[in-house]
Design a protein that fits this description.
By secondary structure, this protein is mainly alpha-helical. It is built from 14 helices and no strands. It has one domain (about 1-295).
Length: about 300
């Protein structure tokens, strides 16, 4: 029975990674329909926030009560992390190959490690220095040899996606001390969605939505994007963690950049040079190495969440 649960958990984690890896398909399609990354971000986050709030109301009604003292925390996790990550990643997808954008996003575990040293006073020991060296070498190879639109500005945008993505692990760990996972996800996406409307030029967005020949079909595409790239994978990943340790889950989730690269080659006919492939392998090696860190060296898990 325990083996079946672990296999089921692994399948859920892989499903989440595959779904996240499809992000570029939606972003590229909607960009060709005339929407910019800011507008796509606003629609994705808003619809996802609605789904998460409905789930919170059903699974954890008590979590609907947000304490005022925690507003800065969720503003940071929503706007400083999820919103900025989405903006940077969608912009990166629009400006560089999917494989490059995805692997720069997956420098996030490196940022998590560095932030944990600063915030939680964790020791930089064991395999961590080697992982940093691998990740840095991988970024040099990807940025220096790939060629595919990776200017210094684009590199910063891609790394910004990875940093803000990693920031969510730090802020989420703090929030889980007082709220359930459902509440943390719902409030994070709610504030991220609200913040996105300050950037997306709402008038232009509504004009673009009504200018297409089939507004209903377009809205369904946005709805599908929110479900496939946000709600379902986040929920799948959370459920998978219930029967699988976090280190193994992190390794399995690295299927995302590989899936993104596969979509880029098969759907958009992108090419990958030897330097890009080697850089991807080095960064993935760093992520796997961090995930395989000796459990005894890992920090204690976040305190059990208490309902707000």
């Amino acid at each position: 029975m325990k083996t079946n649960k672990r296999l089921g958990g692994a399948a859920l984690i892989l499903l989440a990674g595959i779904f996240w890896g499809s992000m570029g398909l939606f972003v590229r399609t909607l960009t060709r329909c005339g929407f910019d990354p800011l507008q796509i971000t606003a629609m994705r986050l808003s619809l996802s926030a609605l789904f998460f709030l409905l789930l919170l109301a059903r699974k954890d009604p008590a979590g609907m009560r947000l304490q005022i003292r925690d507003l800065p925390l969720f503003l940071a996790s929503g706007i400083g992390s999820i919103l900025m990550m989405t903006l940077c990643y969608f912009t990166a997808i629009d400006r560089m190959p999917l494989s490059t954008a995805a692997i720069l996003l997956y420098t996030s575990p490196i940022w998590v490690m560095l932030l944990s040293v600063l915030v939680f006073r964790e020791r930089l020991s064991g395999k961590k220095p080697l992982a940093l060296a691998l990740a840095f070498s991988g970024c040099v190879l990807v940025s220096g040899l790939s060629g595919g639109g990776l200017t210094p500005l684009n590199l910063l945008i891609g790394l910004g996606a990875g940093f803000s993505y990693g920031l969510y692990s730090i802020l989420g760990r703090i929030a889980l001390r007082r709220y359930s996972a459902y509440a943390v996800s719902a409030y994070t996406f709610l504030f991220a969605a609200a913040g996105s409307w300050f950037f997306c030029r709402p008038a232009a967005l509504f004009t673009a939505l009504t200018a297409v020949p089939s507004p209903v079909g377009l809205f369904l595409l946005f709805l599908l994007m929110a479900l496939v790239t946000a709600f379902v994978p986040f929920l799948s990943y959370t459920l998978g963690l219930q029967s699988l340790e976090a280190s193994r889950a992190a390794i399995l989730a690295t299927v995302e950049p590989l899936v993104a690269a596969l979509f880029g080659v098969l759907v958009f006919h992108e090419s990958m040079g030897l330097g890009t492939i080697l850089g991807i392998l080095l960064i993935l090696s760093a992520v796997v190495l961090l995930s395989m860190e000796d459990p005894a060296a890992q920090p204690a898990e976040a305190e059990s969440p208490q309902k707000s």
